[in-house]
Hints:
Blueprint: H1 2-13, H2 46-69, H3 78-108, H4 112-142, H5 152-158, H6 160-169, H7 177-206, H8 211-238, H9 244-272, H10 281-301, H11 312-318, H12 322-332, H13 346-355, H14 359-373, E1 411-415, E2 418-422, H15 425-433, H16 435-438, H17 444-447, H18 453-460, H19 484-490
Helix pairs in contact: 2-8, 3-4, 3-5, 3-6, 3-7, 4-8, 5-6, 6-9, 7-8, 7-9, 7-10, 9-12, 12-14, 13-14, 18-19
Amino acid sequence: MPRNLIKAHDKIKGLEWTPTYFQPEAKYETKFHIPKKTKDPFRHLIRDYMAMEAEKDDRQYGFLDGAVRIDNPNQVEPRFAESLKPALAILPFAEYAAGKCQGMLISTVENEELRNGYLAQMLDEVRHNQQEMYLGRYYMKHYADPAGFDVSQKGFGEHFLGAAGRSFIETFIAGDPIECAISLQVVGETAFTNPLFVAFPNTAAANGDHATPTVFLSIQSDEARHMANGYATLAAALSDDRNLPLIQEAIDKYFWRTHKFIDSFLGTLTDYFSVNHVQTYKNMWQQWIIDDWVGSFIAKLEKFGLKPPRWLPQAQENISWMHHSVAMSAFALWPVAFWRFDVMQEKDCAWFAENYPGWDTHYGKFWEAYRMMADPKHGQIPAQLLPSLPPLCQVCQLPCVIPRPDNSAVHIVEKAGKKRAFCSEPCEWIFDLEPQRYLGFQTWFERFDGWDLADVVTELGYIRPDGKTLIAQPHLKTENMWTIDDIRRLQYTIKDPLRN
């Protein structure tokens, strides 16, 4: 069988030719030098690939049909189920961008082996987009509180954390195609899909959700090919010494961009939306990013001159604090979300204090206040306790509260005639590399500066079908739900901290 596979693969390659009667113009320019002959490590045959994927789909959709019959969607811990509303809003856009990235690579890389792998990956990304959209639809149809699932794609682009997600995901499709491949395949898929599609499903299962692991693990079975594509692309680029400094800069840049968003977002979902914890996000990160990706994948490439990401030490320091700070920002401004939050009870706070030493000192008071403010009768939201909202970083679009609000690395400086905030030295370094790429970013606070919070919620459309009850809630109760009238009584005005 292996011998026949090799022959079949060689025959398929023989069908490709280089036209001599015209020279097509490059649609996407690259500064990298990629050889025309390398190896496709998987020897993809599309016929065999399609049969394999069809079998996986039969198993997956068959399970989801059976899970509905036993009402599994409503056996999930509601706190965890709410985390799927933002997760399944953001992921389909990532898959779409990943598919677009493969099209860019096929148009740019004159290497039949690599292009064959990119073709299979493009088909994968279409499949993943469909799987995640279907999972969102599955919960929208069968979960007790579908509000939020029905506006997920619009909501993704409207929430301030969604804007940060979009800013990160656009690194798959904006810029040099080889850099996009490094961002997607080498960093995003080889490093960070493991905590997302392997470790996070364990958390889902522990909280009664068996649909998400079924879909996510099916997706991850494809990611092994994508990791191989990334390795093949990287190996091809490393074969030319001129590429080494370009590769190192891209690794440094996109590891930081991925760390900032994925670790903030996935860390919040893992630690703050779980009732039954499997492991801390800090331990998950150590296992998959440090031990697996840096210790195995990057270490094997050091003999070619490639080094671990420049900002890895700062990322390691952030992991104990960053997602707690970002979570606090999201909970503080809960009315502008399209999902419900849950109150962190004393047992939750005890878990955080035990697993993240110092957590109670820096965050405990906030959660005490949050518990008091969950009832609309209190007439206050946590954001009103803050002297001002934290500025949003011009590059990553996340709140400048890292590693902690009391020890923030925020740097506010005038660039191109305007005040701009940077959450960290690496984000400012990235901006200075390509300022034209980030100058046009309008932050969420700039957009809504001077608006009453009730008008913001109305503009975003985050109101339930009764025309008054908010989609977002600071608790999971079916009574004492906040309405737009409750928000209007607050008389809370959004103020961009860089203008005010």
